[in-house]
From TrEMBL:
Location(s), subcellular: Secreted
GO term, biological process aspect, one: response to cold
UniProt entry tagged with the keyword Signal: yes
Organism domain of life: Eukaryota
Protein name: Meteorin-like protein
MF (Gene Ontology): hormone activity
Range of residues in the leader sequence: 1-25
Native organism: Ficedula albicollis
Family listed: Belongs to the meteorin family.
Database matches in InterPro entries: Meteorin-like (IPR051998), TIMP-like_OB-fold (IPR008993)
Upper lineage: Eukaryota, Metazoa, Chordata, Craniata, Vertebrata
Keyword vocabulary terms for this entry: Disulfide bond, Hormone, Secreted, Signal
TM annotation in the entry: none
Entry keyword annotation includes Acyltransferase: no
GO cellular component, one term: extracellular space
Length: 292
């Protein structure tokens, strides 16, 4: 007789949450942000469910030889009252396989990522209050070489909407949006487009940027290269935006997303100088960017 999948037993499993995961310390390595574990210890009792607790705004899950299931509890170190303003995004590893990933709330499951989905660079987002993550291993004849893994990020709903609204990176920003982007973006640089690489499969363009002035960066995306001592880096945007190499300097702003720089507002630098001066003269600029 074929046994029922774990997902069919989910209401019972959720009721037993406090009893699960005991004695599992030898099965995984974990810190506040990342979890790495193995399903090999579940071979003799495949109905095991592992509880995973993470308290960071970003990190990763890596589950080797998946059997049984994982319940992933994301508990960022912020006030629970702020949870309703959060969006969770996950990005499966390129070769992730061996499990389905569900969105779970009060025992109800909604399939988020199907085992074997090979959509390149696909990111799946949902409101924090829509539920948690339930990762269930799929039946396998051979679990060797199977690794289910994904990165996760938690961010405010407004930032997530900007990143995942298809038209947002392509639409020219208003003067007000540019000035706010200067104050709130993860990176702000003055630079030129050296080259553009289009990746048709992933529907993205990689902008190779030569940096003339670095105002701010959250991560070390833009770095000194070679003996010339020039700063360079890469920014990604949607292929449909049709970015092409060209003359002149731009003010590039944007967000970091799964370790990559994503393009936000990018006016020509001379246009930015104009709008910044006009706002400063009226006392309306929201922050100081410093000298050119």
């Amino acid at each position: 007789m074929r046994s029922a999948p774990l997902s069919a037993l989910l209401p019972l499993l959720l009721g037993l949450r406090l009893l699960l995961g005991g004695g599992a310390a030898a099965q995984y390595s974990s810190d506040l942000c990342n979890w790495k574990g193995s399903g090999l210890t579940h071979e003799s009792h495949r109905k095991d469910v592992e509880q995973v607790y993470l308290r960071c705004s970003e990190g990763s899950i890596e589950w080797m030889y998946p059997t049984g299931a994982l319940i992933v509890n994301l508990r960022p170190n912020i006030s629970p009252a702020s949870y309703k303003h959060l969006t969770v995004c996950i990005k499966p590893f390129k070769d992730s396989a061996g499990a389905n990933i569900y969105l779970e709330k009060t025992g109800e499951l909604k399939l988020l990522v199907r085992d074997g989905d090979r959509s390149p660079s696909r990111v799946y987002c949902f409101g924090y209050d829509q539920g948690g993550l339930f990762v269930e291993a799929t039946p396998q004849q051979d679990i060797s070489r199977k690794i289910t893994g994904f990165q996760y990020e938690l961010m405010s709903k407004g930032i997530a909407a900007d990143l995942h609204t298809a038209s947002a990176p392509c639409r020219p920003c208003s003067d007000t949006e540019v000035l706010l982007a200067v104050c709130t973006s993860d990176f702000v640089i003055r630079g030129s487009i050296q080259n553009v690489t289009n990746e048709a499969e992933e529907q993205e363009s990689i902008i190779h940027v030569g940096v003339n002035k670095l105002y701010r960066q959250k991560s070390k995306v833009f770095q000194l290269t070679g003996e010339s001592g020039n700063w360079r880096g890469q920014i990604k945007t949607l292929l449909e935006c049709g970015v092409k190499p060209g003359d002149g300097d731009f003010l590039f702003t944007g967000r970091m997303h799964f370790g990559e720089a994503r393009l936000g507002c990018a006016p020509r630098f001379k246009d930015f100088q104009r709008m910044y001066k006009e706002a400063k003269d009226k006392g309306l600029n929201p922050c100081e960017i410093g000298p050119d």
